[in-house]
Amino acid sequence: MTEKITVPAYAKINLFLDITGVLPSGYHSLNNIMQQTDLHDNVAVSFERDAENFFEITCNNPLIPCDERNIAYKAAKLFLNESGERGRVAVDIEKNIPIMAGLGGSSTDGAAVLAALNELCGKPFSRAELEKMGAGLGADVPFCIRGGCAFCKGIGEIMTDIAGLPPCSILIIKPDYSSDTAAAYGRYGKNPVKARPEPEKLLKDLEKGELSEISGGLYNIFELLDNARETERIKKALTDAGAMGAALSGSGSAVFGIFPDVSSALKAASGLDYNIRIVTRPLAGSQV
């Protein structure tokens, strides 16, 4: 019998992102504060037990590969290998999160597949076990499973739950160009940044829930490395339109601004000349 479930796969933004070193594995160690938002893909997963494993991926975005390159495919295969289950897995992704934008769109789809299969198979794994499993798929996958707001270290797998953004609205701007994560980190290797802030002040401001202080403490090292001039132009457009603060998300290319309420965010969005303008809000706690 085929069982099916549809789960939301939520986007994230980075309130603070710094590279602290390079690990022996070649991955970069980070100081990273990630905040989940209610912008999401819809991931429908069906599972039918069978003697042979079979994976099918479909997506409404033609730019998304629907084969073994897709993280959803990798997540389904990993889950069956780890659980000992066998069968046919079909995944259909309704893509709403802009791709190659630093919003975790790929990682969150992989996290959603792990969570959905765990539900369909009777929850053989705890959330902590799913997070550990997800680390093998990508650095942001464990956070996408956990959700809420977290201070992440290592490559992102060492997570501490923290107070997230207080009630506010977030306006995301995705410019015409995209960003390749691996290439962005490679540029850091050629142009290391020596002077940068520590995350402690932002962590304290988040604990206090002071939106104005939080908005003024946003930081992303990639703003100094890739498309810096255009990123600054978008940040200025957002703050000129009323954002309390603005920053690049992940390795880009999306830039977000924090607004006190949805009406001010919608007003700003209507006046900005970018094709992709998304108003969203922060989420608290695990959504998986």
What is the gist of this entry?
The protein has 288 residues and is α+β, with helices and mostly antiparallel strands.
Describe the overall structure.
There is one protein chain. By secondary structure, the protein is an alpha+beta fold. It folds into two domains: 3-161, Ribosomal Protein S5, domain 2; 169-280, Alpha-Beta Plaits (2-Layer Sandwich). It is 32% helix and 30% strand. It is built from nine helices and eleven strands. The strands form two sheets. Strands 1, 2, 3, 4, 5, 6 and 8 form a seven-stranded mixed β-sheet that branches. Strands 9-10-7-11 form a four-stranded antiparallel β-sheet. β3 (54-59), α1 (71-83) and β4 form a beta-alpha-beta unit. The two termini are 24 Å apart. The mean pLDDT is 94.
Keywords:
288 residues, alpha+beta, Ribosomal Protein S5, domain 2, 2 domains, four-stranded antiparallel beta sheet, 11 strands, 30% strand
Task: Map the helices and strands.
Elements: E1 3-22, E2 28-49, E3 54-59, H1 71-83, E4 87-94, H2 105-120, H3 127-134, H4 141-146, E5 149-153, E6 158-161, E7 169-174, H5 181-190, H6 200-208, H7 211-216, E8 219-220, H8 228-240, E9 245-248, E10 255-259, H9 262-271, E11 276-280
Parallel strand pairs: 1-8, 3-4
Antiparallel strand pairs: 1-2, 2-4, 2-5, 5-6, 7-10, 7-11, 9-10
Helix pairs in contact: 1-2, 2-3
**What is the number of helices?**
9
The percentage of residues in β strands lies in 25-35%
Describe the global form.
globular
CATH architecture of the largest domain, please?
Answer: 2-Layer Sandwich
> How many discrete domains?
2
Secondary-structure element pattern, one letter each = EEEHEHHHEEEHHHEHEEHE
CATH structural class of the largest domain: Alpha Beta
